[in-house]
Structures are given as structure tokens and as C-alpha cells.
Amino acid sequence: QLQLVESGGGLVQPGGSLRLSCAASGFTLHYYAIGWFRQAPGKEREGVSCMGRSGYINYVDSVKGRFTISRDNAKNTVFLQMSRLKPEDTAVYYCAADPTTSLGCKVDGSYTYWGQGTQVTVSS
User: Fold this and answer.
1) N or C: which end of the chain has fewer CB within 10 A?
2) Could you tell me the CA-to-CA distances from 116 to 56, 63, 95, 101 in Å, in that order?
3) What angle do CA 8, 10, 15 make, to 5 degrees?
């Protein structure tokens, strides 16, 4: 059974940092394109970052220079390091995976498998 489980969310003050984890089971992550998405209350889901099978990385403009996506193949886990957090980063964050043959990825692309989400709240 293919499964993605996010963790690492929480409450953080503006300017703070969090690292989200997305652990995969039932499949090998580095053969898939991986995406991080977020959805704030009352807003549409937004692509935040992605990593292709080749290691190609992309980010939405609003998080460039603040967020970093990475992958630990030995742990079959993808991370999203979030720094200099802003209140507008508050959302439920989801990771997703797609068994694409493409080596690249699209931040706002279509993904097949999804985690349950983890809440990130940035507030003083």
C-alpha cells in the first residue's frame, strides 16, 4: 500500500523556522516526482515546491530563498525546510508523489498520491 505521511508542522512565530517531513512507504520516493502543496482557509490549494526524479527543483515565487526541498533516499523521506516564516505561510501543508517518467517536475502539476497534511501556523 502506497502511503505518504507528513510531520513536523506546528505553531511558530514570524521569522521562525520549521522542517516538514514526508515519509513514504510502499514505494521508492526517488523514482517519483514529489511536490509540496499548501492550502490556507478559504483559499485554493497552492503548489509550493517540487523535486523531479533527476533532482530538479522548483519553487513558487513567494517562497524562493526561504524554503528548501530535499530528499533522503536512505530514509525514503522528503523534507521541506521553511525559514523566515511569515503569517501568510499559515496553511495545511501536503506532500504528494507522482510516478511520472519525466525527470523534471511542475510546482503546480498533477500528482497521484497524497499525504494527510500537517498544519503550519505562523503567529505571534
Assistant:
1) N
2) 25, 22, 8, 25
3) 105
> pLDDT of 78-116, one tens digit each?
999 999 999 999 999 999 999 987 888 999 989 999 999
Instruction: Give the C-alpha separation, 98 to 51, whole Å.
Output: 11
DSSP string, 56-114: -EEE-GGGTTTEEEEEETTTTEEEEEE-S--GGG-EEEEEEEE--S-SS--TT---SEE
Query: Rounded to whole angstroms, what are the CA distances from 18 to 25, 39, 43, 94?
Result: 23, 17, 22, 14
Q: What is the pLDDT of residue 15?
A: 98
Mean per-residue pLDDT, 15-23: 98
Task: Give the cell for residue 107.
Answer: 510546482
